[in-house]
Amino acid sequence: MNDLKDGLERIAATTGPDPVVDVVAAVVRGRRIRRARRAAATAVVAAGIAVVVSVAALHGGERETNVAGAAAYPNPLYELAAFGWLPEGYKQARAGRDNQGRAAYSLAAGRAGEDGNEGLVLTVYGPGPEPGVARLPGGGEGRRTPAPPVNGRPAYWTIKPSGAGSGQVAAEFRWEYRPRSWALLSITDPAVADVATVQRIATATRFGGGRPTAFPMRVTGVPGGFKIMKSALGRGPEARFVLSATGSTDGSDDLSIELTPSGGPGGAASNTTIDGHRAYSDLSVTITDKGEGPATETLRIFDLGGFDLTLSASGEPLRRLRPSGGLVGLYRRTAVLGSDPSRWTVTPLS
User: Transmembrane ranges (predicted)?
Assistant: First the structure.
């Protein structure tokens, strides 16, 4: 068993190719590696362990400006709500939309200077039934209790401050901001989870607006026909889009595009260079007891004017991108617009 484990680790640690790689050769090489490790992986799969085999994969190409089958997508993130009041020291940290299942718009806020620490999250649903009440942290049965109305509309606690479940989620509140339209407020920061503060945040929240969100990047030549499943804009700034060919985000047919502030020279490891930038390129295949999963290709380009760009594709999006240079081609069709919001665009996928 140790020999098998050592063999799999050596395969997973295979050093990647030089920066310029022929796409056909890379695919053939990947198939050889998969064939070489299938027998070795069988015993591990039988034990119920998922094995991920990764090799460097860099599908290059010239800069493509006219990509066959490309489409201009509508703005993925229209403003549906805004905080009218936040506790002292708090600022909006992120806005996002998730189109999985029942579509929802969300706003998160945290203390200034504490990136990634979001003390409260507002989730806004469009017309439809009241969302179900989730189980309490720890598995206890969730239930709602009446609260004073918010702007004359029904409101409820699902976790009351200092009540059941508040040890992990300090407070959870919901109200019907319009007939058959609900908003949920979840607070993890105990310092702002008192009854008066929660109700003041809810009362001051404004709904509507409908303005398209501007993003700090523009990506052209994205294949058409996909559904935008997730979109987000956070302070930093950072932005993320997830598109799907099937309407799910299980990783089998996805395209992910993410821009984040650069980690600097001492950031994540690189294994190649593209257009003078440090980069990390990877092609991975997951093997489970159900067989070999879809290949996922990931490309991360470091320090693009103070930002890092991460691209990931699998299934149909990956196949559709290859004729136009794969992920390298998509990177070369991505314009990073900087930190000044006046330069951002409301057509980020054009």
Answer: 39-58
